[in-house]
Design a protein that fits this description.
Number of strands: 14
CATH superfamily of the largest domain: Vaccinia Virus protein VP39
Order of helices and strands: EHEEHEHEEEHEHEHEEHHEHEE
Radius of gyration: 20 Å
CATH class of the largest domain: Alpha Beta
Number of helices: 9
Structural class: alpha/beta
CATH architecture of the largest domain: 3-Layer(aba) Sandwich
Helix content: 25-40%
Number of domains: 2
Largest sheet: 7 strands, mixed
CATH topology of the largest domain: Rossmann fold
Shape: globular
Oligomer: single chain
Length: 300
C-alpha cells in the first residue's frame, strides 16, 4: 500500500489546532518538527521557532479523498485566522510509513530543565533534566503552544516541593505531570472533555505519577476541591472560563497560595485582573508570547 504524507508549516499557537485536525482525519499519527537548536551547556535557553512543521499520514485507498478533503477544510479555516503555507503532499511507500513520521518528533526543551520527550526517543539528558513523556497526536497540551510552555516555565520557578495542586481544564495532564515531577505532593485535574481526561490518565501512568495525580471528568465547583486546602491552582483554558470560575478557584486556595493562569490573550488580561483583584489576588508576574499571556499570582 502507498501513503500520502500531508505537511503544513504553522506558527506555534496553531500547532495544537492543526494537530487536532490531523489526528482526527489522519491515520492515528501526528508528528511535529521544530528547526530550533541550542546548547544548554553554554547557558542558552530553548528558542521558540517562528514555525513548526506538522505532519500526518493517510493511506491511498477508498478513504483518501474524504480524509484529505476534511483536512484541507480545517487548514483553510485556520488560514482565515492567520495566513499559513499551503498543505504539502508527498507519496511514500508502505515500508517507510511506520517509522517515517516518528523521525520528525523530537524532544522539546522548556525552560531550564524540563524536556518533553516521545516514548520511543532516547534523550541524552543533562543531570538535572526532568523528563515528561508524551506521544504525538495528543493535541490538547503538547508543549508546543505558547500558553503550555509559559505555564511549565512558571511551574519550574514556583514549585518548591510538597504542594497540593488543582489543575482546571487539565487537557493532556501535562501541567499536573510536570508539577509532580518537579516535587509537588499531589494534583487533582478537572477536564470536561471525556477523551482528554482519558488521555490525561494514560499520561500519568506513562510518567509514573498516577498515584499522585487524580483526573476527573468534571469541573468546578466540586466537593473534592475543599476551601482553603490547596497551595497552587493551575488554569490554562480561556479568559472566559477563568473569569467565570475565578471565585471557585480562589476559595480553594490557602492564604498565600499561588495561581498560574494562562490561555488569556493580551487584550483580555485586564478583564481577568479586574475579576481577581476584589478576591484578594495579586498579579505578581505576567509573561507574554505572541498574543498570549501567562500570569503568576498570589492570594493574600
Amino acid at each position: 500500500m502507498k501513503w500520502l504524507e500531508l505537511c503544513v508549516d504553522v506558527p506555534p499557537e496553531f500547532v495544537e489546532p492543526i494537530s487536532h485536525i490531523f489526528y482526527k482525519y489522519g491515520y492515528g499519527g501526528v508528528s511535529i518538527e521544530s528547526p530550533a537548536d541550542f546548547n544548554p551547556d553554554e547557558g542558552e535557553v530553548a528558542p521558540v521557532p517562528e514555525t513548526f512543521s506538522v505532519r500526518t499520514y493517510i493511506p491511498k485507498d477508498d478513504s483518501t479523498d474524504e480524509r484529505r478533503a476534511n483536512i484541507e477544510i480545517g487548514v483553510k479555516l485556520i488560514n482565515h485566522l492567520h495566513p499559513i503555507e499551503p498543505l504539502k503532499e508527498t507519496e511514500i511507500k508502505d515500508e517507510d510509513w511506520e517509522t517515517n513520521w516518528k523521525q520528525y518528533f523530537h524532544p522539546i526543551r522548556v525552560g531550564r530543565k524540563l524536556v518533553i520527550c516521545p516514548t520511543w526517543q532516547e534523550h541524552a539528558s543533562l543531570r538535572d533534566d526532568v523528563i515528561i513523556f508524551l506521544d504525538p497526536g495528543m493535541a490538547f497540551g503538547t508543549g508546543h503552544h505558547p500558553t503550555t510552555r509559559m505555564c511549565m516555565e512558571l511551574l519550574e520557578d514556583t514549585i518548591v516541593g510538597g504542594e497540593k495542586i488543582i489543575d482546571l481544564g487539565c487537557g493532556s495532564g501535562i501541567l499536573s505531570v510536570t508539577a509532580v515531577k518537579l516535587g509537588a505532593l499531589s494534583s487533582i485535574g478537572f477536564e470536561i472533555e471525556s477523551n482528554a481526561s482519558k488521555v490525561a490518565k494514560e499520561n500519568c501512568v506513562l510518567n509514573g505519577v498516577d498515584e499522585s495525580v487524580e483526573v476527573f471528568n468534571s469541573t468546578l465547583p466540586d466537593y473534592r476541591y475543599s476551601e482553603g486546602d490547596f497551595d497552587l491552582a493551575l488554569a490554562n483554558i480561556s479568559a472566559k472560563v477563568i473569569i467565570e470560575l475565578a471565585d471557585h478557584l480562589t476559595k480553594g486556595l490557602r492564604s498565600g497560595g499561588k495561581l498560574i493562569l494562562s490561555g488569556v490573550l493580551e487584550n483580555a488580561l485586564e478583564d481577568v485582573r479586574d475579576v481577581f483583584e476584589p478576591l484578594g489576588v495579586v498579579f505578581e508576574k505576567v509573561m507574554t508570547d505572541s498574543d498570549w499571556t501567562a500570569v503568576l499570582a498570589t492570594k493574600k
